[in-house]
């Protein structure tokens, strides 16, 4: 562990540059993956033979893991209490609504139970980030 810390300290500028590039990769990959996923929901055969979105998802997972690892090491940032603002609640509400709609699109053949399941999925998507902010 000592060697890893000394390596990071010696190459801190390169390491910071790598983290910035990784953050950009994560943001662009997330945007591209979500757009392709929505396109795939409505027009399922559009690019299925040309592009595998699972490969993009794997890149998204790897870059997300590399984005979170430095944050997990710094306990001050993780344990610090955050304040929830009105814009955050609005963003969580929009994400929950989109999640409900996507769940309903996938399971609308089930009848009335599809509304219940999509509502529960949207509520979980809305409440979970709020609970994570308040620990």
Note the main attributes of this structure.
2 domains, 81% helix, mainly alpha
3D architecture notes:
There is one protein chain. With 135 residues, this protein is mainly alpha-helical. It folds into 2 domains: 1-76, no CATH class; 81-135. It has helices at residues 2-10, 12-42, 53-73, 75-79, 86-107, 112-133. Helix 2 runs antiparallel to helix 3 and helix 5 (86-107) packs antiparallel against helix 6 (112-133). The longest helix has 31 residues, at 12-42. The radius of gyration is 19 Å and the shape is flat. The relative contact order is 0.08. The model has no long low-confidence stretch (mean pLDDT 78).
Quickly give the structural class: mainly alpha
Number of strands: 0
- Rough shape? flat
Question: What is the helical fraction, as a range of percent?
Answer: over 70%
Chain oligomer state: single chain
User: What ranges have pLDDT less than 50 throughout 5 or more consecutive residues?
Assistant: none
Mean pLDDT: 78
Distance between the termini: 29 Å
Helix count?
A: 6
Give the count of structural domains.
2
Binned strand content: under 5%
For the sheet with most strands, the description reads:
none
Alpha-carbon Rg, integer = 19 Å
């Amino acid at each position: 562990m000592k060697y890893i810390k000394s390596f990071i300290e010696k190459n801190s500028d390169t390491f910071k540059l790598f983290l910035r590039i990784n953050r950009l990769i994560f943001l662009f990959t997330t945007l591209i993956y979500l757009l392709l996923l929505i396109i795939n929901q409505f027009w399922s055969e559009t690019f299925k033979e040309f592009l595998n979105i699972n490969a993009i998802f794997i890149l998204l997972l790897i870059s997300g893991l590399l984005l979170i690892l430095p944050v997990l090491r710094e306990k001050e940032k993780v344990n610090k209490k955050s304040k929830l603002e009105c814009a955050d609640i609005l963003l969580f509400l929009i994400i929950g609504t989109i999640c409900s709609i996507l769940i309903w699109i996938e399971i609308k053949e089930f009848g009335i139970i599809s509304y219940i399941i999509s509502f529960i999925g949207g509520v979980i998507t809305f409440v979970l980030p709020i609970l994570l902010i308040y620990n």
